[in-house]
Amino acid sequence: MKKMINSIFKILILNLFYFLFSVSVFSQEISFLFMGDIMGHGPQIRSAWQEETKKYDYEEVFSPLEDIISSADFAIANLEVTLAGGPYTGYPQFSSPDELAVACKNSGMDVLVTGNNHSCDRKNKGIIRTVNVLDSLNILHTGTFKDLGERESKNLLILSKDGINVGVLNYTYGTNGNKFSSPAYVNLLDSALIKKDIKKAKKEDLDKLIVYVHWGYEYRDFPNLYQKNFNRFFQDLGVDIVIGSHPHVIQPMEYGKKNNQEFLTIFSLGNFVSNQREERKDGGAMIRLSFKKSYNNILISRKEYIPVWVHKFMEKKKYHYQILPCARPIYNEEYFSNIEDLQKMKTFLDNTRSHLNTNNLGIKEGLPYGLIGFKPITILQSQVPELRKLDFKQIKTKRRRKKRK
Ligand SMILES: [Zn+2]
Q: Which domains are delineated in the chain?
C-alpha cells in the first residue's frame, strides 16, 4: 500500500514538473515597439527651454505615449540628432540638449539607433559624445561607435528575454557628406561590410535578426529601387525584420513567408517627432511586433502599425510638441485648443490608413492601447469613427483644452 502511494505521489510530482515545464516553454514571448525618426529642429529646441528652471525639458513630448512605449519589452527609435553639447542647433546640422535622451529614457525607450545621415553633424566629437551620453543614461544603442574596439564588441546589439535572443544591427546610406575619421565609426550601408557583420552575427545564438536601416528618397510614399534591392539582399542573408526610416513620410510594410521563413519589412516609419508640419510629414507609424517561441520554433505572434501624429500647439506664449496616438477615441474638439489641429490629425490618419491599407502586405493597424504580450487587438472601423463623425462646420473653436500632466 505504502509503495502504491509512493508511486502515485511520484507520478503526480512528475506531472507537475511536466506541466510547469510546458507552461514556461509556451509562455516564451518577446515584444518590440519600433518608432521612426526623432528629429530636433530649432523650434523644438526652443520649445524645450523652461524659463522658470533655466533648463531644457522634453518630457511632455513623449508623455501621451508613455504607457504604450513602456509596455514593450524593448522600445527602439532612431535618434536623428547628435548630443554634441552646445551650441544647440537644428537643421541642417543637429545637436540637441541631452535632456532629449533623458525624456526618451523616461518614456520607456530602451534602445536608440544612431546611424543616420546626421550622425556626423558635429564630426567625431559629436559621435563620441552622443554615445557617452546614451551610455550614461543606460540607453542601449548601435549604429555609431567611439572606436573600432567598441564596434567590435557592440555592433551586434543582442536583446534577450525568456530565453529568446534577438540581434539588432543599424546602417545608414550616408552622412550628408560629413566624414567621420578614426577613432569614431559610423555603419554605412555597404554590402561587403553588412555581409561580414551578418556572418558574424549568425555565429551567435540568435533566434531573430533585425536590421534598422536609414535609406530612401525623402518625401516619397514608395520605396525606390535602392531600398528594394537592399531589402532583397537582407532577406537573402537571413535577416528576419527590416525597419526603415529617413524619408520623413510613411512607406508601405510587407510581411511574407519564403521556405517557411517569415520576413517583415517596414520601408519607412516616417517622422516620430519633428517640426515638419506639412501633410504626411507631421506624423509617422509605430510598429508593434512580438515573437513567440515554442520548442524549436519561433514565429511572429503580433505585428501591427499604430499611427502617431505630432501635435504642435501654442500655450503660455510658446510652442509645445506632443506625439499623439491618432486613433485613441478620447480626442474631441475640447482636447485641442485649435480645431484645425483636430482636422489636421484626422487628415493624417485618413491619409495613412488609405496608403497603408491599400499598399501593405499582411500588416494591419492596431489599437493604440492594450498591452503588448496580451492577445492581439485588431481595429474595428466602428471603434474609431468619433473623428469621422465630427461635423467640423458645426463645432465652435474652443480655446480650452483638457488638462494634461
Ligand atoms: Zn535621415
A: 28-310 (3.60.21.10)
